Amino acid sequence: MADDLSNAFSFGQERTPDQDIEFSLRRFVEIAQRALSPGVNDPTTALYCLDRLGEVLGILAGRHFPSGQILDQDRKLRVVFDPVTFADLAESAFAAIARYGIGDSDLVARLLDVMERCSRGAATSDRETIMRMYDAIRAASAVSGFGVAKTAAQPIRE
C-alpha cells in the first residue's frame, strides 16, 4: 500500500506546467505584468498573454473541478483537500493583470472581453464571481480617467 500511495504522487525540485495549472497560468500573468512595466512598456505582449489566458480559461470554464473530498469505493471519506475552483484561477489571473494595466484602455477593453467570454461557460457561482470583478475593473478604469473603449464587451447576465 505504501508503494501504491508513493507512486500516486510526483515529487521534484520545481513546479511543472504539466502538474500544476495554477503555475502555468501564473507564468502568463507574470509575462504580462513585466510587459506592462514602465521599463519594458510592451502592451502587445501583454495582450498576447491575455489572449492565451482567455483561451485556457475558456477551456477550463466548462470542466468539472474536484470538490475537495475523495471517497473510497464504499463511499467513505478518505481524503480532504483545499480545492482550486475555476473562479480562483480566473480571479487570480484577471486581478493581477488589471492591477498593472488599469491605465491602458486597450488592455482593459481586451481584459473585459476575455472575462466576458470566459464567464459564458462557467458555472453560475463562478460566472457571478467573474462578473463582479468585471464590474469592479470597469469602474476602476473609469475612475482612473482612462475609461474603457466603447467597443468593449458588454456583460451577459443570466
Largest sheet: 2 strands, antiparallel
Quick one: overall form?
globular
The arrangement of helices and strands along the chain is HHHEEHHH
Q: Number of helical segments? A: 6
For the largest sheet, list the strands in their spatial order: 1-2
Strand content: under 5%
Low-pLDDT sequence parts: 149-156
Q: Mean pLDDT, nearest integer?
A: 84
The total tally of domains equals: 1
Distance, first to last CA: 48 Å
Describe the protein.
This protein is mainly α. It has one domain (18-143). It has 6 helices and 2 strands; from the N terminus they run αααββααα. The chain has helices spanning 2-7, 21-36, 43-61, 86-101, 105-120, 124-143; strands at residues 69-71, 77-80. It has a two-stranded antiparallel sheet. A hairpin with a 5-residue loop joins strand 1 (69-71) and strand 2. It starts with a helix and ends in a 15-residue tail after the last helix. Mean pLDDT is 84; it is low at 149-156. This is DUF2254 domain-containing protein. InterPro entries: DUF2254_membrane. It comes from Rhodovulum visakhapatnamense.
